[in-house]
Design brief:
Blueprint (H helix, E strand, L loop, with lengths): L3 E9 L3 E6 L2 E6 L13 E11 L2 E7 L2 H10 L7 H9 L3 H10 L2 H4 L7 H11 L24 H13 L4 H14 L6 H14 L1
Helix pairs in contact: 1-2, 6-8, 7-8
GO molecular function: ATP binding; four-way junction DNA binding; four-way junction helicase activity
Organism: Ornithinibacillus halotolerans
Pfam family, one: RuvA_N
Length: 203
């Protein structure tokens, strides 16, 4: 098991980062690679999970231990693989997610990509009571966190609108960390688009 990687962050891609560790380049898949934008060309310590399957050995990377822990728990749920877990983590506020599991809030859980009602119920069944041993929860969705809880449907609509305007995934993902800091759960689709365009024009 590779628990962490420390080296120079040399490249940020759409789905991964490249870490130079003593002259060896490690491709590390991350929920949102652009959260590491400020560390480009600097030394970075990243928490990792080494996933082994018959046809591939894949290294996943996380900003902190809570994110890594939630990933490992999610992939233990029937119907959720590493790819789905990464998609969930890309837009999740972790304490809010854990709180939703404890409240059995399947409506909140189904707002994430690839999570239908059946999968949401399986998450609750498998993880309720387990996540709180590692992660502190909030009683209600938080508004004063690094990555606010955003209405996923509004965010998806905003992203599709940006693509319709000609922006590509790489450009959109590059502004996501800053965008999540400036919008609130109550922010509607039009306002998200306006704030996103403002950030895109500053790039």
């Amino acid at each position: 098991m590779i628990s962490y990687v420390r080296g120079k962050l040399v490249q940020i891609q759409d789905e991964s980062i490249i870490m130079d560790v003593n002259g060896i380049g490690y491709n590390v898949i991350c929920p949102n690679p652009f959260v590491f934008q400020d560390s480009l060309n600097k030394e970075l310590h990243i928490h990792t999970y080494f996933h082994v399957r018959e046809d591939a050995h894949i290294l996943y990377g996380f900003k902190n231990e809570d994110q890594k822990y939630l990933f490992t728990q999610l992939i233990s749920v029937s119907g959720i693989g590493p790819k789905s877990a990464v998609s969930i983590l890309a837009g999740v506020n972790i304490p809010d997610f854990v709180s939703a599991v404890e409240r059995e809030d399947d409506k909140f859980l189904t707002s994430f990509p690839g999570v239908g009602k059946k999968t949401a119920r399986q998450i609750i069944l498998d993880l309720k009571g387990k996540l709180t041993t590692q992660i502190t929860i909030t009683s209600e969705p938080s508004t004063n966190t690094e990555t606010p809880s955003i209405h996923t449907d509004d965010l998806k609509e905003a992203m599709e609108a940006l693509k319709a305007l000609g922006y590509v995934d790489k450009e959109i993902k590059s502004i996501m960390p800053k965008l999540q800091k400036v919008i609130k759960p109550s922010t509607n689709t039009d306002e998200i688009i306006k704030k996103a365009l403002s950030l895109l024009m500053k790039r």
